[in-house]
C-alpha cells in the first residue's frame, strides 16, 4: 500500500511550526488509514468527547461524530471567520450526504469510505494549503487595515476640514475639523448641501462653476461660509472632482477646506494701506517721518499710535532712539545710503515706548529743499505679515510631516525630469542622500534601465496634463526588484512647483505574491476536479458497457428493456461529467447544447426512431450541475418513453422539446403527437419505474409539473434556477 506519508511537505501553520490535525472518528480502521501515512512532523490529536474549545487546523469526522458535534463545529467556523477552518467528512453513503443540508453547508470536502490513502492524503493536503493561504491573507488584510487606519488618523487630525460630496454638493463624509471651522459637528453636516450654507453672493457664483467641473481637475475656491453662530467666515477649499472611469461623468467631489479669515483680513489691510499710500503720497503715509540734515525730526505722523510716543516726547527724541542699541549702526548705514544714492530700504525693528520691538519695512528717500537736505521715511508695520509667515511655516512643517511619515515613495519632478523633492522613504529605500537626488534626473540617480521604465508615464502626465495610474516594477538595487502601485499627476497652481509632476508609489510586492500563490492553488484544484470528472465519466462508461454485455447475454425481453433503460440513464449522467471536464466551469453546464447531445443519444438507442421527427428549441443558459443532472434524467425518461410507447399505432410522428429561461425560471416542455395517455390512466395507479423516477426528480428540483393529452401527450415542468451548494456540486 502506497501511503506517500514520508514525502509530503505539510505547511507550518500552528504556533509550534506544524499543522494540528484533529481526528474525531469512531471507526478504528478509518483511524488507522489516516494515521498510517501522516509524518511525525504533524501534530495529531484525537477526540471522543467533542470538539468544542479545541484548537486545530483541520478536523476530520465521520457521521456519528458530526451529528454529535455539528453545533460546536458551526460555532467554531463562525468564530474563526473569515479565516478558513476546514472540516473533512468521512462518509460511506453519498446519498446521505446529499440529503443532509447541514452536512452540505459545513463540510468543506467529503471522502467516501473506503478510500485510498493517496486520495485521502491529497484532500488533506489541499485543505491545509487553503488554510495556510487563508491565514496569510488575513494577516495581509490586518496590515492593510492598519495602513488605512493611519491614513484615517491623518485625515481626522488635520486642521483642515476634509470632506467628500455628491456632484450636487451634498456631504458624504466630513472630518472632525468641521467643528473648529464651522461650529457644526460632522454628524450635523452629513446629508446637508455645502452650497446651502455659503454667503448668497458666493453660492450663486459657485453653483455655476460646479457644473463645469472636469474629472480630476483640481479646483480652488475662496468664499464666505456660514457658521453655526450665523456669521460668515472666509475659507479656501481645494477640490478634486472624481469621474467615472468609463464615462468621465463626475460621481464625487473631494475637498480640503481651511480658514483664511486672517489672510483675508491681512489682504484687506494691505489694500487699504496701498490706497492710503496712493492717496497720501504727497503728505502722510501710515508711519511717516521727516528728518533734516542735522538729524532733527521735523515731521511725523502716527508715531503715537504705532510706537506709543506722544507728540511732546517725539519732539525731544533723536531718530536713532526709535531703534534698539544693537540696530543703530545698521540704521545709520541706511541713512548714509539714502543720502548718497537717493534712497534706501530695509526690514528693521523699531523700539516702542513699551520696550516691544516691532518689525517694520522702512523705505527712505532723500531730497533737497532750498539749501537743506532732508530724508523722508515711509514705514510699514510687518507684524501681521510676520504672523502670516509663521503660520505658513507651521503649515509647511505639517505637510513635511505628512509626506515623510508615509511608507509610500513621494517625489516631485520638473519638465526636465529633474527631482525637486523626495521624501524620507524614497531616500531610505534607494539608500541615497538628498544631495545625490535633488536637481538630478532619474538616469543620473538610478541609471538608464530605471529611467527607461519611468519615462513613458512621466511623458504622459506632462503631455496630457492628466493623472496616470499604473503598476510598475522598479529595481531597488542590483539584487532586488519591487512592484509598486503608482499614481502620477500634474501639480497645478503650486507656487515654485509650476510645470511639475508629483508621484506616489506604494509597495505592493507582497500582495501580488500572495495573489499569485492563490491563483496557482486554485488552478491545481481545478485540474484535480477535471481529472475526477473524467474518471467518473470513464467509470460510468465501463458500467454502461457491462450492462450492454448483460443485455446480450439474456433472451428475456423485459430484462433487456430494463437493462437498456438503465444503460441510457447511466449514459445521461456520464454525459454530464464529460461536459464538466471539457468545460471551463466545473459546476455549470451550457444546458441547451448538452440536451442536444442527450437527445441524439436517445434517438440512436431507440427502436423504430427512423420515422420519428425529433425537434429541439432552446434558449442559451447555464445550469448548476446539481439541477442539470435530475433535469437531464427526467428529459431522458420522458423522451425515451415517447419513442417506445407514443407511436405504437402510427408509422411516423413528431416529438418536440423546448428549453426556456424567463426571469430566472426554467421552463421545459416535451410534446408528441402520438396516441397520448389512456383515458383511464391514473398516475397513482401506474407503478412503472419511469414515472417513479420522474416524480423523484421533480421533487428534487422542487418543480411544478403538468401532464395532459393535447393531440398527443404533453409534459411540462418549471422550476427556479438556483446555485445549489454542497460537495455534490463538483463530485457528481
TrEMBL record:
<feature type="domain" description="PAS">
    <location>
        <begin position="395"/>
        <end position="458"/>
    </location>
</feature>
<dbReference type="InterPro" id="IPR013656">
    <property type="entry name" value="PAS_4"/>
</dbReference>
<dbReference type="Pfam" id="PF02518">
    <property type="entry name" value="HATPase_c"/>
</dbReference>
<feature type="coiled-coil region">
    <location>
        <begin position="130"/>
        <end position="157"/>
    </location>
</feature>
<dbReference type="Pfam" id="PF13426">
    <property type="entry name" value="PAS_9"/>
</dbReference>
<dbReference type="InterPro" id="IPR003594">
    <property type="entry name" value="HATPase_dom"/>
</dbReference>
<keyword id="KW-0175">Coiled coil</keyword>
<feature type="domain" description="Histidine kinase">
    <location>
        <begin position="531"/>
        <end position="723"/>
    </location>
</feature>
<dbReference type="InterPro" id="IPR000700">
    <property type="entry name" value="PAS-assoc_C"/>
</dbReference>
<feature type="domain" description="PAS">
    <location>
        <begin position="147"/>
        <end position="217"/>
    </location>
</feature>
<dbReference type="InterPro" id="IPR013655">
    <property type="entry name" value="PAS_fold_3"/>
</dbReference>
<feature type="domain" description="PAC">
    <location>
        <begin position="219"/>
        <end position="272"/>
    </location>
</feature>
<dbReference type="InterPro" id="IPR011495">
    <property type="entry name" value="Sig_transdc_His_kin_sub2_dim/P"/>
</dbReference>
<dbReference type="Pfam" id="PF07568">
    <property type="entry name" value="HisKA_2"/>
</dbReference>
<dbReference type="InterPro" id="IPR036890">
    <property type="entry name" value="HATPase_C_sf"/>
</dbReference>
<dbReference type="Pfam" id="PF08448">
    <property type="entry name" value="PAS_4"/>
</dbReference>
<protein>
    <submittedName>
        <fullName>PAS domain S-box protein</fullName>
    </submittedName>
</protein>
<dbReference type="InterPro" id="IPR005467">
    <property type="entry name" value="His_kinase_dom"/>
</dbReference>
<dbReference type="InterPro" id="IPR001610">
    <property type="entry name" value="PAC"/>
</dbReference>
<dbReference type="Pfam" id="PF08447">
    <property type="entry name" value="PAS_3"/>
</dbReference>
<dbReference type="InterPro" id="IPR000014">
    <property type="entry name" value="PAS"/>
</dbReference>
<dbReference type="InterPro" id="IPR035965">
    <property type="entry name" value="PAS-like_dom_sf"/>
</dbReference>
Amino acid at each position: 500500500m502506497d501511503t506517500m506519508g514520508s514525502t509530503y511537505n505539510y505547511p507550518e501553520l500552528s504556533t509550534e511550526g506544524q499543522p494540528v490535525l484533529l481526528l474525531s472518528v469512531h471507526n478504528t480502521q478509518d483511524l488507522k488509514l489516516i494515521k498510517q501515512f501522516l509524518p511525525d512532523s504533524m501534530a495529531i490529536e484525537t477526540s471522543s468527547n467533542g470538539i468544542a474549545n479545541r484548537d486545530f487546523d483541520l478536523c476530520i469526522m465521520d457521521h456519528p461524530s458530526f451529528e454529535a458535534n455539528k453545533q460546536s463545529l458551526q460555532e467554531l467556523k463562525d468564530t474563526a471567520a473569515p479565516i478558513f477552518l476546514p472540516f473533512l467528512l468521512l462518509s460511506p453513503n453519498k446519498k446521505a450526504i446529499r440529503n443532509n443540508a447541514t452536512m452540505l453547508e459545513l463540510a468543506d470536502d467529503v471522502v467516501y469510505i473506503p478510500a485510498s490513502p493517496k486520495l485521502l492524503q491529497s484532500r488533506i493536503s489541499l485543505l491545509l494549503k487553503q488554510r495556510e493561504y487563508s491565514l496569510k491573507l488575513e494577516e495581509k488584510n490586518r496590515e492593510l487595515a492598519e495602513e488605512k487606519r493611519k491614513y484615517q488618523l491623518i485625515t481626522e487630525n488635520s486642521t483642515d476640514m476634509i470632506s467628500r460630496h455628491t456632484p450636487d454638493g451634498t456631504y458624504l463624509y466630513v472630518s472632525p475639523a468641521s467643528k473648529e471651522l464651522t461650529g457644526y459637528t460632522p454628524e450635523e453636516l452629513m446629508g446637508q448641501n455645502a452650497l446651502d450654507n455659503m454667503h448668497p453672493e458666493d453660492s450663486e457664483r459657485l453653483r455655476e462653476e460646479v457644473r463645469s467641473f472636469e474629472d480630476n481637475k483640481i479646483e480652488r475656491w475662496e468664499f464666505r461660509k456660514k457658521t453655526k453662530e450665523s456669521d460668515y467666515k472666509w475659507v479656501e477649499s481645494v477640490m478634486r472632482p472624481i469621474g467615472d472611469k468609463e464615462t468621465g461623468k463626475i460621481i464625487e467631489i473631494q475637498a480640503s477646506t481651511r480658514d483664511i479669515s486672517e489672510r483675508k483680513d491681512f489682504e484687506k489691510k494691505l489694500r487699504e494701506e496701498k490706497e492710503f499710500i496712493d492717496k497720501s503720497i504727497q503728505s502722510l503715509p501710515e508711519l511717516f517721518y521727516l528728518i533734516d540734515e542735522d538729524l532733527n525730526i521735523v515731521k511725523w505722523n502716527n508715531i503715537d499710535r504705532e510706537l506709543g510716543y506722544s507728540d511732546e516726547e517725539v519732539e525731544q527724541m533723536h531718530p536713532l532712539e526709535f531703534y534698539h542699541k544693537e540696530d543703530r549702526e545698521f540704521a545709520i548705514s541706511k541713512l548714509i545710503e539714502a543720502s548718497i544714492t537717493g534712497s534706501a530700504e530695509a526690514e528693521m525693528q523699531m523700539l516702542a515706548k513699551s520696550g516691544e520691538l516691532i518689525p517694520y519695512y522702512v523705505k527712505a528717500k532723500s531730497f533737497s529743499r532750498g539749501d537743506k537736505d532732508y530724508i523722508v521715511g515711509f514705514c510699514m508695520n510687518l507684524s501681521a505679515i510676520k504672523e502670516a509667515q509663521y503660520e505658513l511655516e507651521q503649515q509647511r512643517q505639517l505637510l513635511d510631516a505628512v509626506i515623510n511619515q508615509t511608507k509610500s515613495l513621494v517625489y516631485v519632478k520638473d519638465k526636465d525630469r529633474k527631482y525637486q523633492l523626495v521624501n524620507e522613504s524614497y531616500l531610505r529605500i534607494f539608500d541615497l542622500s538628498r544631495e545625490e537626488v535633488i536637481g538630478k534626473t532619474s538616469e543620473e540617480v538610478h541609471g538608464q534601465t530605471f529611467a527607461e521604465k519611468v519615462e513613458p508615464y512621466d511623458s504622459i502626465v506632462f503631455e496630457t496634463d492628466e493623472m496616470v495610474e499604473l503598476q510598475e516594477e522598479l529595481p531597488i538595487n542590483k539584487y532586488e526588484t519591487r512592484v509598486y502601485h503608482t499614481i502620477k499627476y500634474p501639480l497645478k497652481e503650486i507656487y515654485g512647483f509650476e510645470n511639475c509632476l508629483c508621484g506616489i508609489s506604494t509597495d505592493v510586492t507582497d500582495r501580488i505574491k500572495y495573489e499569485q500563490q492563490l491563483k496557482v492553488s486554485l488552478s491545481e484544484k481545478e485540474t484535480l476536479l477535471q481529472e475526477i470528472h473524467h474518471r467518473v465519466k470513464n467509470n460510468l462508461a465501463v458500467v454502461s458497457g457491462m450492462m450492454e454485455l448483460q443485455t446480450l447475454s439474456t433472451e428475456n425481453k423485459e430484462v433487456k428493456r430494463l437493462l437498456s433503460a438503465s444503460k441510457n440513464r447511466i449514459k445521461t449522467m456520464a454525459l454530464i461529467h464529460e461536459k464538466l471536464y471539457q468545460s471551463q466551469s466545473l459546476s455549470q453546464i451550457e444546458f441547451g447544447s448538452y440536451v442536444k447531445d442527450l437527445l441524439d443519444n436517445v434517438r440512436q438507442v431507440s427502436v423504430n426512431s427512423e420515422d420519428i421527427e425529433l425537434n429541439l428549441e432552446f434558449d442559451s443558459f447555464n445550469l448548476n450541475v446539481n439541477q442539470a443532472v435530475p433535469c437531464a434524467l427526467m428529459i431522458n425518461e420522458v423522451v425515451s418513453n415517447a419513442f417506445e410507447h407514443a407511436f405504437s399505432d402510427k408509422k411516423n410522428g413528431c416529438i418536440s422539446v423546448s428549453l426556456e429561461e424567463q426571469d430566472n425560471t426554467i421552463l421545459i416542455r416535451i410534446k408528441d403527437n402520438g396516441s397520448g395517455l389512456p383515458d383511464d390512466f391514473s398516475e397513482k395507479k401506474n407503478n412503472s419505474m419511469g414515472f417513479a423516477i420522474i416524480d423523484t426528480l421533480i421533487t428534487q428540483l422542487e418543480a411544478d409539473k403538468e401532464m395532459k393529452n393535447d393531440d398527443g401527450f404533453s409534459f411540462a415542468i418549471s422550476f427556479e434556477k438556483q446555485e445549489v451548494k454542497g460537495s455534490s456540486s463538483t463530485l457528481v
